[in-house]
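Entry 14. Structure prediction run on the chain below.
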Amino acid sequence: MAQIKKVLAVILAACLLISVGIVVAGAVEVSKDDSAAEPVGAGGIIVHYYCESGTPTIYYWNSLPTNVETTYPGKAMTKETNNFYKYTFPNLTKVNMLFVVNGTQSVELTRNTGEWWYKNNKWYDHDPANITQWDRSDLREDSIYFVMTTRFYDGDPSNNVHCWDDSNAGNGDDDPAWRGDFKGLIDKLDYLKALGFSAIWLTPVVQNGGGYDYHGYHSMDMSRVDERYESAGATYQDLIDAAHEKDMKIIQDVVWNHTGNWGDAFFCPMATKEYNTIQDLASPDSMKLIPDGELAKAYPNYASLSGEAQFQARL
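Output returned:
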């Protein structure tokens, strides 16, 4: 019996030693010095962080295949051009991190093997300043603000103009239907972004014609932007450029299956707009029939018809 007990004791001791060896061999190596100045080897990670104020530090932990970590607030990043700062993790395939600027930290982030740029809370796999490379994104990840431009914000009062049916709708001189404009949208991009929106969905911007066309859905020329939206330095392209500068998207509402009741400049031209000032568009007299257009040929007496009869003729 004593001999059996000795054998069992030897076996238990051997099992214990084997278990300890496995634990030691499987323990994760922790290093306080990642030698970030070394060239990136296979599986390395490079991050570029966009920062306009202060020098950011990068705090990191929980990396693979070895655990590399630092103490808060982390290590200083290397300044590059265009307000980017760089940090390199040689031979890592994954790392958790956050950025700290003037005592304020970003959200917790994770990156895997590769070179990455982080700007305005978004990761890129290329320098976002490289406009020759287009980004593809899933709109389901965006918060979209729908806006009727004319009723949003008046950035330029000089292009305010009534619809010629404003009086029938009871709109006073202090509230012309065409009041909001592209200048107003540009002025409020920071406001919309601060609300948490990353994309703006615009009502149609094409040239409209009609007695109450402020909404944009009474198109008469799909190839032109309506002049009542634009101002000096605030064209449609200026709005798009300003939104992109803030890493926001413009989603353009278009309607192909119908026009307003003044025809279409391509398929069925009826009239053109003629005016000296933008305020002239508040009168139906700004609409001039095309002499050889479909409407003029079908109704040579159009000018003598009543307003209701003219409307029915255009339909």
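Residues 31-124 form a domain with the Immunoglobulin-like fold (CATH 2.60.40.10).
Filed with the rest of this week's runs.
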